[in-house]
Amino acid sequence: MAYWLMKSEPDTFGIDDLEARPKQTEPWNGVRNFQARNFIKQMKPGDLAFFYHSSCEIPGVAGICEIVTDAYPDPTQFDRKSDYYDEKSKPEHPRWYLVDVKYQRHFKRVVALAELREHAAKLGGFKLLSAGRLSVMPVTPEHWNFILSLEKKPSP
Fold it and tell me: What's the pTM?
């Protein structure tokens, strides 16, 4: 099993939205960064991801979702009416992929980005702290477990 962090703006699609979906499952579409796309293509069913709220008052880890499919072509890249349409992408050679994710749980509290930065020494190499704009990134088991331990502590 591998661990990931997946970012979404809660005003667009947050963890509450995922929880409310039928079967609590949703395609994670709209990724248009090649590095993030390559990470998506590495995901496997059963992997877990932190659901991270970005571009909001308190950005941070809001909960956990599970990867439930292998990567497959993102259909929005072919839909001219979609915000995620890509004229360079062809059905026979898709450029963009997605996975379906399933809600697992909310965190007891959001573990804020500011709090994660306070623990930069323990989170050395954590991509969120060095590649902040990347929307999908791997998380080491050590970082995963450390962030889970922060959830249990009171907010700083």
Answer: 0.95
